[in-house]
Specification:
Layout: E1 3-11, H1 16-24, E2 31-35, E3 40-46, H2 52-59, E4 67-75, H3 80-86, E5 91-93, E6 97-100, E7 112-115, H4 128-138, E8 146-150, H5 156-163, E9 168-173, H6 176-188, E10 194-197, H7 201-206, E11 210-216, H8 219-231, E12 233-245, H9 249-254, E13 261-269, E14 272-279
Parallel strand pairs: 6-7, 8-9, 8-11, 9-10, 11-12
Antiparallel strand pairs: 1-3, 1-4, 2-3, 5-6, 12-14, 13-14
């Protein structure tokens, strides 16, 4: 069966490249390519699954925020693995962490190396929020700690926590494809991480207390789930948050139910923000 290629020219390109990929991921699109130099995102879907009205509806929430020019063409089957390899670069965070795909060369000079194959899941290490979370994690001693990675995506942050010496790590994601993808990546990196498919309710089902909770999602979900994080975080424990804009940081910190936490660090990258909070003892 042939595919439909939808080309999206975005102005501005970031952060809407990631936002629209996530939005289209809710539709039957199964592959995405980015050409940042041309401000393009290309999305691929089986011809029989394509409904242009659904595509236009996916654009609607962002009207007035980003200019989107789109074109649609039918293409023959392609080698998706080859296409993906051509468009995925390794990521380096200082000399602390090297995130690569299986086809990239190893670099043993880095303290930690993570090998992932992201497929449709969020968290290749390219996005500013993921990089900020890695930087925040670098300053924490994970040895012997219990860790929860909420909205784990590819599992990259859960893998890093385990490689940094965490005793137990749980990873949760609400998307089925992310759940399957992170399990593959845990095995690929030879780490023991417990993977769960679901949302906030899974935290209560597990019923554990954590020394570190990592949540790279978005502001509204973070604030709506905060009480659950708070109940399951030990005193003096760390809460690492990202997935929201710099302009939203003040709202997050000022939220009334955050008064049991102290802000220990804030990192800003372009329009995005990452926070390290510590629960009072």
């Amino acid at each position: 069966m042939d595919y439909i290629e939808v080309s999206l020219k975005l102005n501005p390109f970031r952060p809407f490249n990631e936002i629209l990929v996530a939005q289209l991921g809710e539709l039957p699109f199964d592959s995405f390519l980015e050409e940042e130099d041309d401000s393009l995102v290309k999305a691929y879907i089986l011809e029989d699954d394509f409904v242009e009205a659904d595509l236009l509806a996916a654009f609607a929430p962002f009207e007035g925020m980003v200019e989107i020019e789109h074109s649609v063409q039918k293409i023959e089957k392609v080698n998706w693995n080859q296409k993906w390899e051509e468009n995925f670069d390794a990521v380096e965070v200082g000399n602390f962490c090297y995130v690569r795909a299986p086809f990239h060369v190893e670099k043993p000079t880095f303290l930690h190396e993570i090998v992932i194959e992201p497929k449709m899941s969020f968290g290749t290490g390219h996005h500013q929020t993921t990089q900020m979370m890695i930087e925040l994690m670098e300053k924490i001693d994970f040895k012997g700690k219990t860790v929860l990675d909420m909205g784990s995506g590819t599992g990259i942050l859960a893998i890093l926590a385990k490689k940094m010496g965490a005793a137990e790590v749980e990873a949760i994601d609400i998307e089925e494809w992310s759940y399957e993808n992170m399990k593959e990546n845990f095995e690929r990196n030879n780490v023991q991480v417990s993977a769960y498919h679901g949302g906030e309710e899974v935290i209560g089902t597990i019923g554990k207390q954590y020394d570190v909770i990592i949540a790279n999602i978005n502001k509204n979900i973070l604030l709506s789930q905060f009480e659950t994080y708070n109940r399951h975080l030990n005193n003096k424990g760390f809460l690492l948050l990202s997935g929201f804009y710099v302009t939203d940081a003040a709202d997050v910190v000022a939220a009334e139910h955050l008064n049991t936490f102290e802000t220990k660090a804030q990192i800003d990258k372009e329009t995005w923000c990452g926070l390290k909070l510590q629960k009072h003892g």
